[in-house]
Specification:
Layout lengths: L10 H4 L14 H10 L1 E10 L7 E6 L5 E7 L4 H5 L7 E5 L2 E2 L5 H10 L2 E10 L2
Antiparallel strand pairs: 1-6, 2-3, 3-4, 4-5, 4-6
């Protein structure tokens, strides 16, 4: 460009396109995916439960969907507290590679009561 004009001749630099905006309606599938997978970390925990021991944590319904099974308490001097990896608020999604996401919390509790030995839990944790 000759002459003394300092203006750009590239219209894309002078007027960049405005970003696209896609509102996400509350309760949408995309919102639940973002809540479950982008804002939460997956944690795998292995607990070793003896024949006469309790796991030492409580569960209740709650979490992002309201129907998730959430750790509501961890009791001192228990398998769970000695492990040190569980946190109140963690959402339980798998027990020994079996999905519990569609199970009622009472059914998850019954399942956990029956298992002895190694118990592998997959949890979703809210990022700090």
């Amino acid at each position: 460009m000759m002459g003394g004009s300092n203006t750009s001749t590239n219209p894309s630099l002078d007027n960049p396109p405005s970003p696209l905006f896609f509102p996400i309606p509350l309760g949408s599938f995309l919102e639940s995916v973002l809540t479950a997978h982008l804002w939460r970390a997956t944690v795998n925990v292995e607990l070793n439960r003896g024949w006469n021991s309790r796991l030492g944590f409580s569960l209740q319904a709650g979490g992002p969907t309201g129907d998730d099974t959430v750790i509501s308490a961890i009791y001192p001097d228990s398998v769970a507290s000695r492990c040190g990896k569980l946190r109140v608020g963690d959402v339980l999604v798998n027990v020994n590679d079996e999905s519990v996401e569609d199970m009622k919390t009472a059914d998850v509790i019954d399942l956990l009561r029956k298992i002895r030995g190694i118990i592998c839990l997959t949890l979703l944790r809210k990022l700090d």
